[in-house]
TrEMBL record:
It comes from Methylotenera versatilis (strain 301). Gene3D superfamilies: P-loop containing nucleotide triphosphate hydrolases. NCBIfam families: cmk. It catalyses: dCMP + ATP = dCDP + ADP; CMP + ATP = CDP + ADP. This is Cytidylate kinase. It comes from the Bacteria. ATP binds at residues 11-19. The lineage of its organism: Bacteria, Pseudomonadati, Pseudomonadota, Betaproteobacteria, Nitrosomonadales.
Length: 221
């Protein structure tokens, strides 16, 4: 794997990882890895092929045949733009179900490492600091209470004119957190050397500034 600076941003669903990570990447001019999108693509592709999300071997075999590309803001699967299709709550749930399979996780490691290019990488996910980039220069664990995160997701869906029910979102997030934390392979876990950033009362730009400051301090030491 290439050695360029990596900032790993991990945390549970709707903690703000994607939004914060993309802003940090754009401020630093770094590459950006949305690792959750990979698990979402796999869940989507499996569904298209009528492969049950619980079938580890079939899901992994199917993944190995996929052509996955990130071009600008678009996510391409076998040359088709699936950016919107993979962002539904159903596919999010499917992503967390396929993500429990160790062989699938192993099949996605090289692709994630390939994002580490000059001048550096902001990697967002669940296991960026613990498994994929354990040597990352800076590791941040973003979190917020389940209620705060459910409300954020609710407002986000409303903003996109998509159906949103707060109680359902809260229940789905609780289930997804439990599955992500409880799985044997690369569970959602704060790395020992990560900085915890609780964002219940921290806005997006303050979170971005905080991470940039921490990175600046590291560079000056
Ligand atoms: O990537 P992840 O699922 O962790 O979260 P996200 O999609 O970046 O953020 C979920 C929603 O929360 C977005 O609409 C963000 O704008 C919002 N958000 C917020 O209101 N305050 C924060 N500190 C972080 C995110
Ligand atoms: O946007 P949100 O935080 O809801 O989800 P995501 O980051 O798109 O990830 C979808 C699912 O993929 C998560 O619930 C995890 O189960 C899984 N995932 C993972 O296992 N490891 C990662 N590095 C990223 C996502």
């Amino acid at each position: 794997m290439n050695h360029f600076p990596v900032i790993a941003i991990d945390g549970p669903s709707a903690s703000g990882k994607g939004t914060v990570a993309q802003l940090v990447a754009s401020k630093l001019g770094f590459n950006y890895l949305d690792s959750g999108a990979l698990y979402r693509i796999v869940a989507f592709a499996a569904q298209q092929d009528n492969i049950p999300w619980s079938d580890a071997l079939a899901v992994t075999a199917c993944t190995k045949t996929l052509k996955i590309e990130f071009i600008n803001e678009q996510v391409l699967l076998n040359n088709q733009d699936v950016s919107n299709e993979i962002r539904t709550e159903e596919i999010g749930k499917g992503a967390s179900q396929v993500a429990v399979h160790a062989p699938l996780r192993a099949a996605l490691v090289d692709m994630q490492h390939s994002f580490c290019k000059a001048p550096g990488l902001i990697a967002d996910g669940r296991d960026m600091g613990t498994v994929i980039f354990p040597e990352a220069e800076l590791k941040v664990f973003l979190t917020a209470s389940t209620e705060t995160r459910a409300l954020r997701r609710y407002k986000q869906l409303q903003g996109k004119n998509q159906p949103a029910n707060y109680e359902h979102i809260l229940q789905d997030l609780t289930e997804r957190d439990a599955r992500d934390k409880g799985r044997a392979s690369a569970p959602l876990l704060m790395a020992d050397d990560a900085i915890l950033l609780e964002t219940d009362n921290v806005g997006i730009s303050d979170a971005v500034d905080y991470i940039l400051q921490k990175y600046q301090i590291l560079q000056n030491t």
